[in-house]
Amino acid sequence: MIKTRPFSFVCLCFLLIQIILLMVSGGNTETEIPTGSVFHENKERTVTIHGQVYKKTNTSNIQILYLKNNSTIDSKIMVYDEKFTEVAIGQRILLRGKTKSFDCSRNPGNFDQRAYYAKQNIHGMIWCDKVVTVTGQSHWLMEGLHQVKMKWKNLLQEALGEKEGNILAAMLLGERNDMEPDIKELYQKNGIGHILAISGLHISFIGLGIYKLIRKTGAGYILSGVISILILSLYAMMIGCSVSVIRAYIMLVFRIGADMSGRVYDMVTALLVAAAITVGFQPLYLTDAAFLLSYGAILGILFILPCLEKMFPCRINIFSALKASVAINVMLFPIILWFYFEIPIYSLVLNCMVIPLTSILLAFGMIGSLLGFVLWPVGKGCLFICKLILSVFEFLGTVGKKLPFWRVVLGQPRFWQIIVYYFLLVTCIILIQQCVTRKRLYIARLVFCMCIGVGILLVAYRPQGNLTVTMLDVGQGDGIFLRGPKGNTYFIDGGSSDVEQLGKYRIEPFLQSQGVGKLDYVFVSHGDKDHYGGIEELLERQEMGVKIKHLVLPMNWKQDENLVDLAETAIEEQVSVVVMKAGQNIREGTLQITCVQPSNLDQPLTGNAGSMVLSVSFNEFSMLCTGDVEAKGEDVLTSRLSEQEFMVLKVAHHGSKNSSSERFLKTIRPEIALVSAGENNSYGHPHNETMKRLKAMGCDIFTTTQNGAITLQTDGNTLTIDCFLY
């Protein structure tokens, strides 16, 4: 098929070369902050720079300016301006502010902010303290389009209210900054989040709609095409040229151009040209979720849908829509898991209802907006229909999340699993294309269903039999995940004093990337925020996040008001609360998690000294998790462990000098020490004194400040250690 399309063949070769180059380089060179950049040292500092504004966007509480042609080597810079300085696109601005580098991902499954912005050639941001001068002429077209967008957004908010107005602004204008996070998450978790992004559906609706309207007036193909492409180009410039917008725009230009030139539209060529142009500007887009999902969806329509039509012929509209939805989801299954780790089970049915309604929504949104500028009552009436449709979407999403198994967390697949999945899929497509008789089609149906079933099971497969321990990088705090040999899951502590929304943005994504949708036991050692804050978030997100079966607290929990509040939250969320004291344990095969202290026999210990200490044993492997135990608590612990040694020590209190005394270390004689502390934390953890004591014991030391998440895997005899950062 490609042989008969030489232009497509050239584009395909170009894409393959870019993929190979990206694999060879590992995709790392483009994400590194260049030497000489104001963000290179990854430390906050005050700078004075000037640059030209090429883009700007507003939220309800801040203005974001994008600068190019800067006085530094940075090609592009983001500026956060809380004072909403009056500056137009195209003008030059001189400002003073504090630099902030983007964070890289420090745990598996976490969002990599640095890589995301590197695709836009942006390596950092500046919090503006003062704008010194604004000079130069504005870019009349881009500034004009920005003003139109802002007035359009305000019109939608006035007509529909803040909530629905911001949702429709996201759909029509790509303005998602002011959307309520809960609504955005509701759409995403139900598998209909794609309607919030400007995509092929939106561009095709607007572009083809305008083209067909002009044609109906009697205008010729060329005039209709030129006008519609011009309007579409202005719209694309206004909403921003995202990956999905570029893809849809180029393909639609090919579609209209085919009519204008009297030729047949070739979707394959249009798709490959769009991909080659996008990747030519930025090769890193080959690893981008929006790129892979956008192009993958079209590939599903091109190659899998015809196979489904051939195997299951039916002209009823609802079944045709269902087959299209199945084709897209079969194509995107591993990609969705790679980026989002879970599958919304009812998304196939939901999309069959939502997508037709979205077309109606876009129609009334566009018509209502245009009328709203010239005839407000009529325009507001049209937009009210949009509000009704959006309420239907929210209702469907709310009902969907109450259904059993509404989403299944399968985790991030490995690369070889994805390769095998697509090998099976391509084999099925080739087989079905060769079928010409009913008997062969019957066999093809069976083979297709079997291969897809095997592929799904393969991608979701996770071996058991080993113990996996991961100490997450939670900033200045603690968080340890364990997966037992039979698949049970445990979490010890989970909090931070310097990372906001730790549970939602660090712990949850990590757990889901590991295929964990439920934690069997969550232990909290004591009532400091840097040990329970993230767990509190998880408890409050039981409906949307990771489920917790049992919350395990130390026996002295009633002496700590924070732990009392945490227990009440757990009970409200119907999570079982369990109290554990010294000598009690949880078993899973040969894995044993034992509470070492506090005990009824100990003198009352509170605060750090009263931390719950846990020992983990699995055949020959042993690990001691110490919370923040220090001072009297560590003295009691040392006496209690006088005859025990541990292979791995989770160093207490983030490596504080008041813990891990020489006497204690000589008692347990650890071979490996794990230290959890925040990068550049204000406490100076881990302290030099503690590190010297650990080195004197001959410990191999791993810290989250240098290594990010640290994963230990053992069969009970041999041990492997993997650091997320090197």
How would you briefly describe this protein structure?
The protein folds into four domains: 32-138, OB fold (Dihydrolipoamide Acetyltransferase, E2P), CATH 2.40.50.140; 146-278 and 348-409, no CATH class; 415-460; 467-723, 4-Layer Sandwich (Metallo-beta-lactamase, Chain A), CATH 3.60.15.
When the domains are counted, the total is 4
Main beta-sheet annotation: 8 strands, mixed
How far apart, in Å, are the first and last alpha carbons? Answer: 45 Å
Look at the structure and name the CATH superfamily of the largest domain: Ribonuclease Z/Hydroxyacylglutathione hydrolase-like
Helix and strand composition category = alpha/beta
State the shape: globular
Instruction: Note the total helix count.
Output: 22
Overall pLDDT level: 90
According to CATH, the fold-level topology of the largest domain is Metallo-beta-lactamase, Chain A
Instruction: Compute the CA-based radius of gyration.
Output: 29 Å
CATH architecture of the largest domain: 4-Layer Sandwich
Estimate the strand proportion.
Answer: 15-25%
- CATH first level of the largest domain: Alpha Beta
